[in-house]
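As described in the Methods, two query proteins were run sequentially through the folding procedure within a single session, without resetting any intermediate state between them. The first query and its resulting structure tokens are shown here.
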Amino acid sequence: MPVYVVTGTDEGRVSEEAATLFEELKAPGSDDFSNEIIEGIADNSEDAFQKCSQAIEALQTLGLFAADKVVWLKGANFFGSDRTSDAERAVTGVENLLEVLQDDLPDEVTFLLSATGINGVRRFGKWAKKSTDYRPFDKIDVSKEGWEEQVARIVTRVAREKRLTIQGESLQLFVQRAGAETRQISNEIDKLDLYLGPDRREVTVEDVTLMVSVSHKGVIWEISRAVEKRNAKRAIELIDSLIAKNENAVGLIKASIIPTVRNLFFAKLAGAYGSINRAPAGIQAVLPKKKDGTVNTWGLKMASAGAKNFSLPQLQKAMGDCLEADKALVTSGQDPRMVLHKLVIKLCDGKRAA
């Protein structure tokens, strides 16, 4: 019996991929009577046990007229490491399901599981990774270098499915405004598709500015752009808006201000040689890297325009100011909001010595 598992922290992508896979797995011309979908969102551990029992019953029942049958346990939320998943009743249900899946069931039956997360330490998780068609889709970590390029590939793919073209500045702006959430990316592309209509398929910067909502990550990006433009008033307004929503100041400085200043510094450093590729090996060695070890050219290109607003000594001083502010947020009893305000004012002060 074929078994497919679609899981990961990117719930929008998991849902999309599982739905597509279900349609692919269904026998041609099959209807709802030939396949079974079991909604997997459980309210508690007993509910999780019952959903596993329903899946087992469906697996052990042949399709109408003995035709091929797909059983989909959809959007299950009790295979992870949360309170419900860890409860004895839920664990028992999952173990019972595993025993059935490991048996020699008819080849005519296919099992598809989509889940918000799977505990890789438990027996089911270990078995699933080793013995099934296992397809993980995790959210892109926006704290890591190179996340923009990963998101840009997703945006390009989703746009292409709508026969939209989005590239260059338009693509950069879309990535920074929409962030890394697959569901929001799809929603924003849908909005652009409707807005442009059938006759215009090229997405412009103006289209993105007008139609694409600013996500949480987009606000972070707006703070970065304000700092690059030395617009202290705008940066402070945005910081206050996030702090009012209980945003952690330490997380804010590490997600927005420090990476911005660092990229400005390295863009300025490499810019003296005309391009990153022409910079000496010693400078290339300290440039921010992606996971694969290559230079994060996306971040440096984004910062290159803003770097023109600063001298190299100013950016060296700014790096030190960021370090002091970061220490103050972690070790002192100062008001976090005031620490960030003072830092932004220092970074954006046009009177600082060049």
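Immediately afterward, the second query was submitted; its sequence and tokens are:
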Amino acid sequence: MFIFLIVYLITVTLLCLYGAHRLSLVWGWWRNRGDRHSVVEIEEWPNVTVQLPLYNESAVAERVIRAVGEIDYPRSRLQIQVLDDSTDNTTEVVARAVEDLIALGLDVAHIRRANRQGYKAGALAHGLKSATGKYVAIFDADFVPQANFLKRAIPLFSEGVGVVQARWGHLNKDRSLLTRQQALLMDAHFVVEQFVRDRRGLWFNFNGTAGVWRIEAIEAAGGWEGDTVTEDLDLSYRAQLAGWTFRFDPNLVVPAELPDSIGAFMGQQRRWARGGIQTAKKLLWRIFSSKAPFKIKLEAFFHLTGNACYPLLVLLALLVPLIVKVRSQFGNWGSPWVDLFVFVFATSSVWGTYTVAGLIVGNGRNSIYRSLGVMCLAIGISINQTVAVFLGIFGGETEFVRTQKAGDSGTMFSSYSRKFGFIELLMGFYYLEAVVWALGVGMWSSLPLLCLFGAGFAQVGFLKLREAISLRVSKLPFQLG
């Protein structure tokens, strides 16, 4: 039984290291919270190309095209490319919207490819062949850029800056508990993580959308490549290896839709986790071998390997109930207060990050208890993410699977919506039994950790089960009730 405790303590130690890194970001935000970037005075607005990569997104395609058409920028210096790889009626929707913008005098091209080679990366690279801009702004289909976006972003391009990244806003934050949790998750990434990396001179990534690239930086980095499913993360690090710097402006916000189904959300998170590990495999050695300062290398390591926490989390989830029971049989063998320490340290690092993020974006006291929900959500999807990490390490699943969007047509189901969540529910019952056991033997210090894990798996398992049932009911030839 001694081996279980050793594995448990090693797992806890590694997770605590990542927790300490998260706390360092919160401290970094506090120290740099008042910093602002200088802007360049624009005497003559440069040529800008706007790219809209689309694939089977008829519910939201027209909205983003029309929003881009309303951007306040000199028409003679603005080119719009709709990169349409769709195989459904999205193409007809796009064609009509493009015709309307052309009639208004805008330079708009509806670009189709013979195949989806390279997926989104391939579409963006294909569009650049005919781009006329010095800069290229990129928006995914579920984003709605504001009219002043370019006039606020372009002045941030001082000499040597390759990317300006905006913060993601949320069009449907209050649609459900799931979207509120995701909003806080995204806010923490941008207003804490990206902000601190930017202000401390660390490397960070273009987030795939709601940002502007200097085309020269794309070319210097070797261009878009489709050998990972996070082409944005890959190109970002290659561009910074080539000497370009990035800027993030937390006050430049582009609203977008959050996935409003657990299936779509888990599919999105799985792609990001798999792509992050793929990028780590591809570039970490180049980063470590570069002449970048040690602090940049260290941050790149934590950033690119952050999803490795999920296998550790699953391992911890399997071990905690076993450790609790072993202790009860061997006179508290291995201090039960370790569980309480793990709970306090892990929750404080996450609570600090998300509470700060919530306060910054205006959620106030709500962010304090919503942080607990975000922790539960992260635990609940850990099995899904662990699969993604191993796929990223050992290969497989290189196809870019886009995140389903609801648009104005209600909930969209993804392939993940067909899964009933039995594994997560089973883990929930596993923890329920462990809670009852701990109560029976008086191991009070282990209860917070057991309850947190149990609630996380139960939440995601229930959401997956409900969604899978809803999907099957929607396909019945008759209506129930």
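The first helix runs from residue 2 to 32. We note this only descriptively and draw no conclusion about the first query from it.
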